[in-house]
Write a structure and sequence with these properties.
Elements (H helix, E strand, L loop, with lengths): L7 E3 L6 E2 L6 E15 L7 E4 L5 E3 L37 E5 L1 E14 L9 H19 L6 E10 L2 E10 L11 H4 L2
Antiparallel strand pairs: 1-3, 2-3, 3-7, 4-5, 4-6, 7-9, 8-9
């Protein structure tokens, strides 16, 4: 099991809009938001990857190359159709790179919501995550879509009053499906 990290989210150019009761928070919508998903491997030290064949494994807890790459075979057959005893990358100093982090950038429609309690207090982690999931469930019920169509996150952030959590709803379809962009019209 490789630990999951929250994605880095960019909503460049999206303007903050106060909620109908501005004391309770604000939100913003980005039609072309970006999410960068990344992984540091099983022990947080990255991956060791053979650039010749693509075989990879998590770098060990001490930051050393995993034993699974010592004298490894190609992931797929090479010139000799699986009769090679080992990958040519084993004999080339440059071929196996250690400590690499893996990541992927996706674009989608994203809504960021920052809420505060009636007393002005920020959300705590459990409350923020619970609210993001509840908002997703409610939006999906209103739109008549499956919950897998919309993702939900709660990530520590700052608002205009200090520390808080940002609740994110995003379309899981690459490029966005237009579901979360309907959120602002439903706030009233």
């Amino acid at each position: 099991y490789i630990p999951v990290r929250d994605p880095l989210i960019s909503m460049e150019g999206a303007e903050w809009i106060p909620l109908p009761n501005s004391l309770l928070g604000r939100f913003r919508v980005a039609a072309g938001g970006q999410m960068f998903h990344r992984s540091d491997g099983l022990y947080g030290k990255g991956y060791s990857i053979c650039l010749r064949c693509g075989r990879g494994d998590s770098t060990t807890f001490t930051g050393e190359r995993p034993k699974s790459l010592d004298g490894h075979k190609r992931l797929r057959g090479g010139k000799l159709n699986d009769r090679e005893q080992s990958c040519p990358g084993n004999d080339e100093d440059w071929a196996i790179q250690d400590g690499l982090r893996l990541g992927a950038l996706t674009r989608s429609e994203i809504v960021e919501i920052q809420l505060r309690g009636l007393n002005g207090e920020p959300l705590d982690e459990a409350g923020a995550y619970t609210l993001s999931v509840a908002l997703r469930r409610s939006l999906c019920a209103l739109l008549g879509i499956d919950e897998s169509e919309i993702g939900a996150l709660a990530i520590p952030s700052r608002d205009d009053q200090g520390r808080n959590y940002s609740l994110y709803l995003y379309d899981t379809a690459s490029g966005g499906a237009g579901f979360v962009s309907q959120v602002p019209s439903l706030f009233d």
